[in-house]
Task: inverse folding
């Protein structure tokens, strides 16, 4: 399949990315060739094969419901690009 | 003793000298730091070097040893850590602009365990951005050079760790392996490494790439060092819900037993088209060596391998796209100063903070997970994953382990594959199936090509069969000298 402008723009939106025109052209070509290669999997009959999302068959791995200590607020905010009054600072989100 | 000699020693040899008071941990650490400062500008294997912290830590470990405290065989020995493993108060960048100034407020589980064992951290090593790549060329901080030939790549994504160990800039290192990122750079740089069974080593504090495939593992000058490091960093950890209980490694028999009767599978279709003839010859020669040591060779076909790369890129990119959605420019990491709305901040921070390979994989992940394509791609990838796992399971009914090349070629030239992602991905043919199946594999040097570049071989085993793999690799290394020659060649020329 070919990746056209419409699809690449949809993928940009899903991925929260904005490509330059040049990047977009390159991405179209690269993703098309990768997806065409991946289509090789259609040669395999997987009609009755169960999907495997994990190496082992995990069951839920619960921990005891015990209170533990949290990270210190100031410590976590140290890596925040912008902060104010002990909170992460973001642009206005509600009008 | 000439202090220069320590750069050619294994971590266990250095640890023993420290224990026997022939040299102190601060002396070793200072020597390594000086060596890094002198030689690393030519290689770029480190992103950051912990000059003051390392010496301080070495003095602390030394005083613990001097006061009679029982510490591990690696106590006081310096180590290098891949820069996607969280180190408290030490920058952990994933070789990305996105995390250029990120200082984790906590240590990864493996760092706590190394700390308890008395390890000294020299610094953080270069890698492909977010571990996405096979050449360390996608690093925001520039590529690492192969110490055997600085025009060539060291492999990746743990290229900095492998190059540093190969060049004698660190006695051992930690890497991570999502699709071959420990094994392939080991092969390109002539060092040894282990990709442990999924769940064997806690992923707590490993910056996530593809969570159902990622594992941390050791890189060393020989397999014995790797086994020692793996013993230290492995074991159950409640903070990683996929960490396996009651699966402690016991390598005690790996170093004093032979391999008589060990059944080694040779998947003949692994050795066909696309494999460099010199690599084929070296790996098959290793098979003969193992046979003279008592192993039995068993030839079979494993046709499913042809589908491993496409299945891997579907699964890995889907998980990467989801994992990397956390980089929004708000809580930590790079934030763009352009844009008025929250949505703009997300998009601009990500677009300016990620490199092209990372963006490509996120978009590929978005594609295979998007409605309309999910069944045809993501589900198909997961079904293929099951077929690969089944195929390994039936192989291990007939043999104890599988011998294969690590990569189809030796180290390629810088820039040679970087503009063609598909070509780069195809280089992962021998490694990715191991991660999809969650099984362990070791990578050890088995020769050199006509250009003097190292060739690696891979031994793949059933879940939690690391001790058996280490035993085979150890017997091989006791009877060959490829792993020792690698450092001799390095010392003699390139650096």
Result:
């Amino acid at each position: 399949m070919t990746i056209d402008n419409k699809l690449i723009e949809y993928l940009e939106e899903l991925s929260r990315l904005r490509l330059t025109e040049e990047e977009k052209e390159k991405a179209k070509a690269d993703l098309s060739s990768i997806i065409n290669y991946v289509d090789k999997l259609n040669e395999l009959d997987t009609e009755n094969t169960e999907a495997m999302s994990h190496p082992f068959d995990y069951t839920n791995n619960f921990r005891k419901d015990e209170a533990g200590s949290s990270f210190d607020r100031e410590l976590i905010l140290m890596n925040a690009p912008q902060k104010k009054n002990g909170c992460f600072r973001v642009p206005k989100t509600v009008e | 003793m000439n202090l220069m000699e320590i750069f050619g020693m294994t971590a266990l040899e250095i640890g023993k000298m420290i224990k026997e008071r022939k040299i102190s941990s601060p002396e070793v650490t200072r020597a390594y730091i000086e060596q890094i400062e002198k030689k690393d500008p030519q290689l770029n294997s480190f992103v950051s070097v912990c000059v003051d912290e390392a010496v301080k830590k070495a003095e602390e470990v030394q005083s613990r040893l001097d006061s009679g405290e029982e510490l591990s065989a690696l106590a006081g020995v310096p180590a290098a850590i891949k820069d996607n493993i969280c180190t408290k108060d030490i920058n952990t960048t994933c070789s990305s602009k996105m995390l250029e100034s990120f200082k984790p407020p906590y240590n990864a589980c493996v760092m706590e365990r190394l700390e308890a064992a008395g390890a000294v951290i020299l610094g953080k090593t270069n890698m492909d951005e977010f571990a996405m790549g096979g050449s360390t060329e996608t690093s925001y901080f520039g590529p690492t050079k192969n110490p055997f030939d600085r025009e060539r790549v060291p492999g990746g994504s743990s290229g900095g760790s492998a190059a540093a160990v190969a060049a004698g800039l660190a006695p051992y290192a930690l890497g991570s392996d999502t699709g071959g990122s420990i094994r392939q750079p080991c092969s390109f740089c002539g060092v040894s490494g282990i990709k442990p069974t999924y769940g064997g080593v806690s992923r707590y504090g490993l910056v996530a790439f593809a969570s159902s495939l990622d594992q941390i593992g050791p890189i060393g000058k020989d397999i014995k060092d790797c086994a020692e490091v793996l013993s230290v960093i492995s074991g159950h950890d409640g903070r990683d819900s996929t960490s396996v209980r009651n699966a402690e490694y016991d390598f005690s028999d790996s170093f004093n037993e032979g391999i008589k009767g060990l059944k080694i599978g040779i998947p003949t279709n692994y050795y066909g088209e696309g494999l460099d003839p010199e690599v084929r010859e070296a790996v098959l020669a290793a098979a003969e060596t193992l046979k003279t040591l008592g192993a039995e060779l068993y030839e079979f076909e494993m046709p499913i391998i042809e589908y491993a790369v496409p299945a891997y890129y579907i699964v890995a990119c889907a998980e990467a796209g989801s994992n990397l959605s956390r980089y929004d420019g708000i809580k930590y990491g790079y934030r763009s100063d352009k844009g008025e709305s929250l949505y703009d901040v997300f998009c601009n921070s990500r677009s300016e903070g990620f490199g092209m390979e990372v963006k490509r994989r996120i978009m590929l992940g978005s594609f295979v997970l998007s409605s309309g394509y999910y069944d045809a791609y993501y589900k198909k990838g997961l079904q293929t994953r099951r077929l690969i796992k089944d195929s390994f399971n039936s192989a291990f009914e007939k043999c104890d382990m599988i011998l294969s090349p690590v990569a189809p070629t030796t180290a390629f030239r810088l820039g040679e594959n970087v503009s063609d992602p598909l070509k780069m991905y195809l280089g992962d043919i021998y490694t990715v199936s191991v991660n999809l199946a969650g099984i362990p594999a070791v990578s050890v040097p088995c020769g050199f090509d006509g250009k003097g570049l190292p060739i690696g071989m891979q031994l793949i085993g059933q879940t939690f069969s690391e001790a058996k793999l280490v035993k085979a690799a150890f017997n091989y290394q006791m009877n060959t000298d490829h792993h020792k020659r690698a450092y001799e060649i390095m010392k003699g020329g390139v650096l």
